[in-house]
Amino acid sequence: MTETKFKIGITQGDPNGIGWEVILKSLSDSRMAEFFIPVIYGSPEAANYYRGTISEIEDIPFNIISSAQDARRGKVNIVPCGKTSRITPGEISGEAGHAAVEALRTAAKDLKAGYIDAVVTAPFAKQSVQSDDFRYTGHTEFFDAEFEGKAMMILYSDILRIGLVTKHIPVAEIPQNISKEKIVQDLRTLRQSLKEDFGIVEPRIAVMALNPHAGDGGLLGREEEEIIRPAIVEAFDQGILAFGPFAADGLFAGGGYTKYDGILAMYHDQGLAPFKSLSPDGVNFTAGLECVRTSPDHGTAFDIAGQDKADPQSMRNAIFGALDIIRHRRTWSEMNRNPLPHAERERSHRDMSVKDLPQSDRD
C-alpha cells in the first residue's frame, strides 16, 4: 500500500529576506518529493529571481496552479500570490510586508478548507507587515486568532522542547502578564502537545523562574513564591508532572534540562537564548491549535539576503517536523478511540516517572 503523501503549504515570507532562498535550497533535492507534496504560496517571479542567485542548485520543476487542490506529486507547486513590483534583497518595505501577509492569508484559508495538511511559514519582518488589517506581532498570534485556540509557541529540536508563557511583548510588561491561572493553562497545553504532537506518553516538565536565582526566597522578587510555585503545585495535583521553579542559568548550565521532556519559560528570550545556543537548527511550532504550523527558528536575515549564504537546515527541519506532527496526531487519535486501556497504561507510566525523579524534584 502506498503511503499517503501529505500536502505541505509553505509561505514565502518577506520576499526581500532569505525565505525564498531557504525554501528553494530545501526543495531542490528531488528526493524531497518522495515524502510530501509541496505547495508554495508566493510570487513565481520572486521564485525565479532567487533561483538565479543560488549557485549550486538542481533544476526545480515548478508547477503554477490556481489552487492547492490542483497540486501534483513530484512537482514544486506554486499558488501565485504576494507579488511585489520589484525584488530588493535586504530592504525593509511595506510592499514586501503586504506580499508576505497575502501569502500567509491565502495559505491559512486553504488550511482551513482542508486543501493542505499543514503550513510551514518562512519569516517576515514584524515591522513591515503592520497595517490596518494586520496588527499581529508574529505568526503565532495570527494563527491563534485565525484558528481560535490557545496557541503556545514551542521551540524544539532533538534535545530540547521549550514552551513560552509570554511571547512577543515588551520586557517591562512580562510580570503583569504572568498569573497562576495562565501558567496552569500553559502547562496543560504543553503537556497535551508533548503527548499528542511528539508522542511522549507522560511528559516531565521543568518550569523556569522569572527572577534571578528563582527569587532567592523573595529577596529578588515575589513571583516565584506567590504565582509560579502555587501554579506548579496546582498543575501537579491535576496530574501534570511539573517541577520547579528553576533558575534559568542553573537549569541550562548544569545540564539539568536533559532530565525533562519539556520546559516552560516565562518569556521569549529566557527560552530562546539558551535554545538557539544549544539547537541552532531548531523548529518553531504553534501548539494548542487544531492546525499544524511550523517554521524555521530564524528571522529574515536581511543582512545576507540574496547572497547565497542562507543555511536551509532549519527550514528542512520545519518541513519534516510538520510531517512528524501530522503523523503523531493521527497515531494519538487512533490510540484514543478506545481510551480506557491507554488511560491505564498512562497512569502506570506516570507513577513510574515520578519514582524515577530525584527526591528534590518530587517534593
Figure out the total of helices: 11
Structural class, judged by helices and strands? alpha/beta
How big a fraction of the residues is strand? 15-25%
Outline the low-pLDDT stretches.
Answer: none
Q: Categorize the overall geometry.
A: globular
Question: Mind summarizing the main beta sheet?
Answer: 12 strands, mixed
Note the gap between the termini: 51 Å
The amount of helix comes to 25-40%
Radius of gyration of CA atoms, rounded to a whole number: 21 Å
In the sheet with the most strands, the strands line up as 3-4-2-1-5-12-11-6-7-10-8-9
Order of helices and strands: EHEHEEHEHEEHEHEHEHEEHHH
- Average pLDDT: 91
Number of strands: 12
Describe the model.
With 363 residues, the protein is an alpha/beta fold. Helix 5 packs across helix 6 (223-237). The protein contains eleven helices and twelve strands. The model has no long low-confidence stretch (mean pLDDT 91). The chain has a twelve-stranded mixed beta sheet with strand order 3-4-2-1-5-12-11-6-7-10-8-9, with helices on both faces. The chain starts with 5 loop residues before the first strand and ends with a helix.
